[in-house]
Design brief:
By secondary structure, this protein is mostly beta strands. Helices cover 0% and strands 51% of the residues. It has no helices and eleven strands. Strands 2, 4, 5, 6, 9, 10 and 11 form a seven-stranded mixed beta sheet that branches.
């Protein structure tokens, strides 16, 4: 199982980013996918999850209304659309599935 995140960067407050996580074709289409993040000096926290068919999603309270998770089961990719970014969203973002972690992508939001 290989997961590769991309799309991070340095942005200003209020702008948007879209993260992508490309998965090797293991059982992607049958797997729940998660996005986590870890800020400096803090524990890794769950940001969002999506069911295998994309019909059910969940979000941390801190990102509800601003972030949207989605997936493309043809491309074996899960996305995290992040709008209205805040400095407190600064973290390394990881995708997770079937006990496998990606390498992470850094998101830095400047005030």
């Amino acid at each position: 199982v290989q997961l590769v995140e991309s799309g991070g960067g340095l942005v200003q407050t209020g702008v948007s980013l879209r993260l992508s996580c490309a998965a090797s074709e293991f059982t992607f289409r049958r797997s729940v996918m998660w996005w986590y993040r870890q800020a400096p000096g803090k524990e890794r926290e769950l940001v969002s999850s999506i069911s295998s068919d994309g019909g059910s999603t969940n979000y941390a309270d801190s990102v509800k209304g601003r972030f949207t998770i989605s997936r493309d089961n043809v491309k074996n990719t899960v996305y995290l659309q992040m709008n209205s970014l805040k400095p407190e969203d600064t973290a390394v973002y990881y995708c997770y599935a079937l006990t496998a972690w990606g390498q992470g992508t850094q998101v830095t939001v400047s005030s």
